[in-house]
Amino acid sequence: DPSSVSRFNHANRNATATKDNKMSMKQSILIVGTVAYSTFAGVREIFVTVLGYNTIEIVRVVRSKEADNGIRVFDSNGNLVGVSKAAGSKDINETLVQRNPMIIAPVRHISSAIIFGLMIPVSFSLFPQVGKIKKENLEEEFQSLDGNSELFYHRGL
């Protein structure tokens, strides 16, 4: 739901920027994007362009005041140093990169391949492939055999 995404972005913005009640062009773009996105609400597969627009424009529009007015910057002790527009722009760009599914997808695929590539051999090595069984636990034909009191069998993977 685009409106819940907008509310989430607005609630988690940097609150340095002051609030004014006049509707800007950016807010108008957000409304148009919300209407366009809502148009596809019943469609099973949402078009990539709509998703891309939603990702970029909602973050850019809802958090645009951070780039326009700047956000607070602090020193290493947490003391306020001032308000920076460059930090606001960097904040928005980092959020866009973080929410871009095309950037995150390769990381997910590579990490899954590494995890599965390591997990399967380790899980196979935890348990021996050859099991032991005492002759007395087997059928009568095996109990009469001379030799060891234990026999072995291949468990497989």
Automatic annotation (TrEMBL):
Q: Which residues cross the membrane?
A: 29-53, 109-127
Pfam families (alphabetical): SFXNs
* A GO MF label: monoatomic ion transmembrane transporter activity
| Superkingdom per UniProt | Eukaryota
Q: Which InterPro entries match?
A: Mtc
Cellular location of this protein?
Mitochondrion membrane
Name the UniProt key words of this record, in alphabetical order: Amino-acid transport, Membrane, Mitochondrion, Transmembrane, Transmembrane helix, Transport
User: Does the record carry Lipoprotein as a key word?
Assistant: no
Q: How does it sit in the membrane?
A: Multi-pass membrane protein
Any one cellular component term from GO for this entry?
Answer: mitochondrial inner membrane
Any GO BP annotation: mitochondrial transmembrane transport
* Family membership noted in the UniProt record: Belongs to the sideroflexin family.
* PANTHER family, alphabetized: SIDEROFLEXIN, SIDEROFLEXIN-4
Q: What is this protein called?
A: Sideroflexin 4
Q: From which organism does this entry originate?
A: Cyprinus carpio carpio
